[in-house]
């Protein structure tokens, strides 16, 4: 049974930092592309960043230079380092896994999802 479990969310002041973790089990982790998405109340789930099995990385424009995705295959974990956070970063953050290295930004292309972790940035 595949499981993705996010952790590390919480309340942070604008300009601060958080590191989210996504721990995976039940799959050959190193062979999967893993992405982070976020969903604010009343809005669609948006792409944030993704990292392929080969280590290729893509970040959405609004987080470039502030967020960094990385992975540790030995720990079956993907991280999202969030620096210089802004109130507009407030959302539930989800990690997701997909097998193919295409359509990285499309939520429906991801096969497995975590339950999400809340990030709230105060001004």
Index terms:
123 residues; mainly beta; seven-stranded mixed sheet; four-stranded antiparallel sheet; 11 strands; 0% helix
Quick overview of this protein structure:
With 123 residues, this protein is mainly β. Helices cover 0% and strands 50% of the residues.
Radius of gyration: 13 Å
Calculate the terminal CA-CA distance, rounded to whole Å: 40 Å
The helix/strand class is mainly beta
What percentage of residues falls in helices of 4 or more residues?
A: under 10%
Based on Cα principal axes, name the global outline: globular
Task: Output the number of helix runs.
Answer: 0
Q: How many beta-strand elements?
A: 11
Order of helices and strands: EEEEEEEEEEE
The poorly predicted ranges are none
Mean of the pLDDT scores?
A: 96
Can you summarize the main beta sheet?
7 strands, mixed
In terms of DSSP E residues, the strand content is: over 45%
Folded structure, characterized:
The chain is mostly beta strands. Helices cover 0% and strands 50% of the residues. It has no helices and eleven strands. Strands 2, 4, 5, 6, 9, 10 and 11 form a seven-stranded mixed β-sheet that branches. A hairpin with a 5-residue loop joins strand 4 and strand 5 (45-51). The mean pLDDT is 96.
